[in-house]
Design brief:
This protein has 93 residues and is an all-alpha fold. It contains 3 helices and no strands. Helix 1 packs antiparallel against helix 2 and helix 2 runs antiparallel to helix 3.
Length: 93
């Protein structure tokens, strides 16, 4: 009973994360301002990272966890770079 519940819970969370990625992609494409597009990109990479983690839990494969870590690091750096570019107009001082 508990194993079946865990499988269905992971599947449900993957579906919900896919829908959240669709909403973030919509905000990234149709955002009225650049700040909204950056927030959409942040939400998109976070949801993508969580989706990879749920795939890793489901398949018990460690490559998904490593790729989620890489996405988290690159997403954080890109968020900082985009924010700095919007505030100052340049990334590297």
């Amino acid at each position: 009973m508990t194993e079946l519940f865990i499988i269905w819970s992971i599947l449900g969370s993957q579906i919900i994360l896919g829908l959240a990625m669709g909403c973030a992609l919509f905000r990234m494409v149709k955002g009225p301002r650049a700040q909204d597009r950056i927030l959409g990109l942040d939400a998109l990479y976070i949801n993508g990272m969580l989706l990879l983690l749920t795939f890793g839990i489901r398949t018990a494969n460690t490559i998904y966890f490593e790729s989620a870590l890489i996405i988290a690091l690159l997403g954080f750096v890109s968020s900082i770079a985009f924010s700095k570019f919007l505030m100052r107009g340049e990334v590297i001082e």
